[in-house]
Amino acid sequence: MSLGMTLKRAWPVLLLAVALNGCARPANYAALSPRPAELEVSDSPPASGAARHPTVVSEARTAQIATLIARAKQGDAQFAQVLATQRKPIEAARSARAMSEEWIAAQRAWSIIESARGPSVEARSGLDALAIESRSDGDGVVEISRAHDVVEKIVAQQDAVLRALTTPLSQPDTTRH
What distance in Å separates the CA atoms of residue 105 and residue 111, rounded to the nearest whole number? Predict the structure, then answer.
């Protein structure tokens, strides 16, 4: 059977399918607007102007926040101490070529400095987790946000120091195999 003959036979069936499709009932699609539960956790202020979160913070949440801030500050002190001892190899490698002994010593020193700031970065992650949790229970939303700002500033300062230290270091040539 040829293709032309097949199309001649299929034409009436296709025409009938298209015609019947026009008679089909409209589908009941889900609305794209937010559900009431989604509106409760949005970042927008409540429509009534009333406080959405309790003003009293639980003792447990206050303790969690204080612990995370203390951890960030401890990490910052550790970062400063290690930076003082490990800065010299990095500065000595500024004019060294990639993969030289000086460059490798600088990479090692940078790694030690980077790991010393671990408690600060972990505290930021802990505050992120608390912020998510507080969106559902409303406990300490404002306090967590303030604490996050403090810890974020600490981590941002550490990032800036690390960038300034490592920017002048030469990079290895990865194009050769």
Answer: 10
pTM score: 0.63
Burial of 161 per CB tally in 10 Å (0-12, 13-18, 19+) = middle
> In the numeric block, which tokens belong to residue 81?
């101490």
Q: Where are the domains of the chain?
A: 59-166
Q: For the purposes of burial, counting CB atoms within 10 Å of the CB of 72, is it exposed (0-12), middle (13-18) or buried (19 or more)?
A: buried
**27 CB burial (10 A radius; 0-12, 13-18, 19+):** exposed
Model confidence pLDDT, tens digit, residues 53-80? 556 789 999 999 999 999 999 999 999 9
| Residues 57 and 140 sit within 8 Å (Cβ to Cβ) | yes
Question: Which residues contact residue 76 at a Cβ distance below 8 angstroms, ignoring those fewer than 6 apart?
Answer: 117, 120, 154, 157, 158
